[in-house]
Amino acid sequence: MYTFIAATENIPRARLATAAVASDDRETETRKDGIPVSLSLAFGAGVLGSVLIAVGATLADRPRRIAHRVVLALGWLWVACVIGFTFGTRSGGGQAVNPALLDVANPADLIDFLLNMAMFAPGGILLAVLRTGVWPAGALAFLGSLAIEVTQYLTASGRTADINDLLSNTLGCTAGYACAAAVGKAAHEIGRRQRYAHEVDRLSRL
Fold this sequence. Notes:
By secondary structure, this protein is an all-alpha fold. 78% of the residues lie in helices and 2% in strands.
């Protein structure tokens, strides 16, 4: 050990600096070898695309329902942000594939799982507006997440194709759908009761 330390101390500082620069260059090249999309670029494309979709849908008067136009515009923005966060952020440099299930005793893994759920929850909310049904929403989330994980593996992006990401994304979308559907049902029930009370009050005045 001491011989190695002494030998390291004898390396000229210029060579150490050159090695550090070369390491940074290799990291940059590795990131360029993956899908060349940054988070800022993806977000910009999402905002621009959502605006164009909203304007186009309004001019064409399609779809008929305003809510569906909003879903299309926000859906584009959400997909762009998911792509940006998935491929445009720095990777932890883990293994290519992780088949091991979540270690709940590891706080870092647990936080990552919850963040992935939060990232896919808006997709479930948007699908709830379209009333696709909870099972189709979960299936779409599973297939979309599976496509992401397979792409990460096939493109050698440096990110880990993780079974926990597949599970958390699916659960997040399903939870988002369930929450939005519950809120919608509660709002509908409140509206129904208010209409009933108003009708009773109107009849009592006759």
